[in-house]
Specification:
Elements lengths: L3 H18 L9 E6 L2 H5 L4 E5 L2 E8 L2 H10 L6 E4 L6 H19 L2
Length: about 110
Amino acid sequence: MIDEAAIQKGKETEERFFKAARQIVRAPSWFLGVRRSTPEWDAVGFDAFVATDEGDIPIQIKSSHTGAHEFHRKHPNHPAIVMVIHEGMDDDQIISLILRLTTAAYQFLSA
């Protein structure tokens, strides 16, 4: 059974992520931008990609830690960074999360 409320909450959380991402003005030089995934990539668990000078960092967006844990349980080897965007987070907090998590991934990519 499809939970329409959960699907709607997921879409709203993704929109909040992309709204914040469009506002990133101070980022490291390697950070080239954020883009939505295609429907094909979305179907296999990639909601967004952060473009860098070392390649793309895949992102999975969740609205709760429960959703993130469930995603990891179902897909233990999935390469996407799972970002939890809580309901009370503002744009600055989301931007900080995007930059913090992608910086860690970038350091791994560029090592």
